[in-house]
Design goal:
- The complex is a heterodimer of chains A (114) and B (114).
- With 114 residues, chain A is an all-beta fold.
- Chain A has one domain (5-113): Immunoglobulins (Immunoglobulin-like, Sandwich).
- Chain A has strands at residues 5-7, 10-13, 19-24, 31-38, 42-50, 53-56, 65-71, 74-79, 88-95, 104-105, 109-113.
- In chain A, strands 2, 4, 5, 6, 9, 10 and 11 form a 7-stranded mixed beta sheet that branches.
- In chain A, a hairpin with a 3-residue loop joins β4 and β5.
- Chain A is globular, with a radius of gyration of 13 Å.
- The N and C termini of chain A lie far apart (37 Å).
- By secondary structure, chain B is mainly β.
- Chain B is 0% helix and 48% strand.
- In chain B, a hairpin with a 6-residue loop joins β5 and β6 (46-51).
- Chain B contains no helices and 12 strands.
- Chain B is globular and about 45 Å long.
- Chain B has one domain (3-113): Immunoglobulin-like, CATH 2.60.40.
- Classes of the chains: A mainly beta (114), B mainly beta (114).
Amino acid sequence: NAGVIQTPRHKVTGKGQEATLWCEPISGHSAVFWYRQTIVQGLEFLTYFRNQAPIDDSGMPKERFSAQMPNQSHSTLKIQSTQPQDSAVYLCASSPPDRGDTLYFGEGSRLIVV
Amino acid sequence: GDSVTQTEGLVTLTEGLPVMLNCTYQTIYSNPFLFWYVQHLNESPRLLLKSFTDNKRTEHQGFHATLHKSSSSFHLQKSSAQLSDSALYYCALRGGTGGYKVVFGSGTRLLVSP
């Protein structure tokens, strides 16, 4: 059973450019989460989908960040006009629907904005 | 909203000594799920253990934790630290009805030396 797949694994982008990160959740998992990980902030919640519907995006910087889940096998996180402070590892996780279920993380996408 | 507090950013121990990592949480939900995730170097976070039941000890891979709703705590313990326990440990909370968002603490880095 393949785990959560994230692409690209590494991305270097210039300040002001756009970055799009992709996530393929584990088949059958109905919940998909996006987190941002930095040494200073740890694991910051960004957004959460259940059955492809956006449930909570309270962690998303509103102006430049957006996330979509167009189908059950694919979610994207888009960052417009990237800034150096966006540099981080972006982690996608999926889980079955029950509240007690484990989150399974992908290997992450390391974004560096220069 | 829900929150998790891990007071120690770094814990350094000598091999063989006991481990205790602190975790307290805040939530309006009466029946939260609490989790400990472990992240080794160059890996993604993975589940270490989880609990839903008040005052019941949960064990996995030599670690244990007990959810105490009276003090809103879920501390992680191990009787004897091993070199391989060196990692980043995150406490996480999944609340009740509705969104089931998973919120992580800021993480505690455990360094075990010979």
